[in-house]
Amino acid sequence: MARYIQYQADNGAQAVQISDSWATELSPVDFERFSLPYLKQIIDTVKKSHPELPLILYASGSGGLLERIALTGVDVVSLDWTVDMADGRRRLGPNVAIQGNVDPGVLFGSKELITDRIHDTVRKAGRGKHILNLGHGIVVGTPEENVAHFFEVAKGIKY
Q1: What angle (nearest 5°) sits at the alpha carbon of residue 13, between those of residues 9 and 17?
Q2: I need a surface site. Which of 9, 13, 31, 112 has the fewest CB within 10 A?
Q3: Dihedral class, residue 2 (left if φ above 0, else alpha if ψ from -120 to 50, else beta)
């Protein structure tokens, strides 16, 4: 995994997101034993060869593991929509960058709902060290005009 990330960086990647899809199937103690050391190994290896490459870690359903995920040494912790952004910011602290976490289902709602959720997420994330994003990928069938609206609102934020 580390070699693949290094390959991506050597070929122009400006940031890389690591997705640990199964991490949250583990209890916290098992995460510490079976996932955390390997994530740290990947991140440490990449940071030795590419110290400036931002590394993002995403583990869907990771609300119970946020503090442990931060121990990996990753640059950005990506939060899914099941974590309240204010709670995630509080638990990770102001020095850890966060990404997310608008519910992708919101994109099936009205433009007003989308706008409200974006502003709520940004407000709760606080100033700086936040990458606005969905809390997971776009769901099949999402109206394209609502995706466009998401980006237009995001580009207009002046916080």
Answers
A1: 95
A2: 112
A3: alpha
Q: What does each C-alpha distance from 110 to 59, 100, 142, 151 come to in angstroms? A: 28, 20, 12, 15
Q: What span, in angstroms and rounded, lies between the C-alpha atoms of 137 and 152? A: 18
Matching residue, tokens 């640059």 = 75
HSE, side-chain direction, 13 A CA sphere, residue 60: 9
Which pLDDT tens digit goes with each residue over 107-124? 999 999 999 999 999 999
pTM attached to this predicted model: 0.90
Amino acid at 20: D
Helix ranges (DSSP H) in the chain: 2-10, 28-34, 36-49, 66-70, 85-92, 111-125, 144-156
